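Replying to the earlier thread about multi-chain prediction with a worked example.

Input:
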Amino acid sequence: MNAAALSRPLAALGRATLALMAATGRLSLFVGETLSHLLRPPFYLREFWLACLNIGWLSLPVVGMTALFTGAALALQIYAGGARFSAEQVVPSITAIGMVRELGPVLGGLMVAARVASSIAAEIGTMKVTEQIDALTTLSTNPMKYLTVPRVLAATLCVPMLVGVGDVIGIMGGWMVGVNRLGFNSATYLKNTWDFLEFWDVGSGLVKGAAFGFIVATMGCYHGMNSGRGAQGVGRATKSAVVAASVAILAANYVLTEAFFSA
Amino acid sequence: MITLDAITRSFGSKHVLRGVDLVVPTGQSTVIIGGSGTGKSVLLKCILGLIEPDGGKITLDGIDVHEGERDAFLARFGMLFQGGALFDSFSVWENVAFRLLRGALKRPKAEAREIAVEKLRRVGLSPDVADLYPAELSGGMQKRVGLARAIAAEPEIIFFDEPTTGLDPIMAGVINELIREIVTEMGATAMTITHDMSSVRAIADRVAMLHAGKIRWEGPIAEMDETSDPYVQQFIHGRAEGPIETLR
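Result:
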């Protein structure tokens, strides 16, 4: 094997690394520009409220259903696991802590990523390929301020609320299974849940929700703004937005969990 | 007056603009002609700052377009995009009055709507259209709405990017006439890019041909047919044979 053949994999690795670094740099600049516009007028309140409606209110059914079934399944699993060492009574407390610390924010974030990051990327990508973003600029409207800032702000504020609602619905899912399937007393189940939870259990989940909301909207806007031409370009942007947002949510979840709960 | 001096722009290894020199006189209608992919749209977008040129200088009334307040600079322009570029989520009147509903030119909503309806009437659309959405309009109507939006804030300079592409000959004629009338009555400086020769003859005071990244020929419309430039002659007569290479 000659030197050229040996160096080929290294060259490919180098190219991939450079591409990754370049993409990270572009994304960092995009985030920096978004943050720099957050505090500077003009503010587009109509766009912000519309984004709140789309990201928050309209995501409620999917987040609620996800939380309900997850809470119910979690209660069953904890009961089955707890039965191995006669600890079935931990179902209410572990279901609650599992929902508010981890499953509520992470699954809520992932569901919002699937629903919202894709929709934002497709909408902005289509606007880009049909020259609507150029039109915005020629109409003296900064596309970053008009399209990105309202969505990022709305997602950062709305996803924690969704997580909060999801937490309640998830705990109710566990309660329904606990009371109707596993024979728990309703009042005792709720009292155990309430007594066991601490403020920071819920608070940390809400902070995670805010971080995940920021990630979802940023990825949607970034990939939409950098969409390629035509239907294929918009399709690729949409796919990239969902994949990037999902992976970033899982990675951020680990980092935040380490920061909040590591001993 | 817009002056372009040695403008260059490449995309990767493709050199689209290779030193464009052009003067667009105030109050006149200049049409840029040239084949598909010769960089006509890129040139227009370079002037507006939508694409950054790699080299050269663009001035508006002697001032570099990169100097001064960007919003004030853009407020002097109106643009009709090739596909209309209307905002799907807004009604027709909100599209037309977009600039009048926000920013420095913001007016009360009722007044902005009144101006939008008036501009729609100017481009031959009835007030009933005002509350429709762009998806409910035909291609020709979308172009007219785009034209109404371009003139809504009464800009000094109007750009038209392929104004008749995708329209039937009659509608293309209507749009050409409208552009000519509006530019004349507003006294605006107009710059149009097209490869539709009927548009050129209807709209232009001056014509410039872009070929191989440079201005190949420019002059008054009256001199276009008489020029001996073989590139211009091939293009305006739509001949397959000639110095301009065509892919078959």
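DSSP finds nine helices and no strands in chain A.

Feel free to reuse this layout for your own posts.
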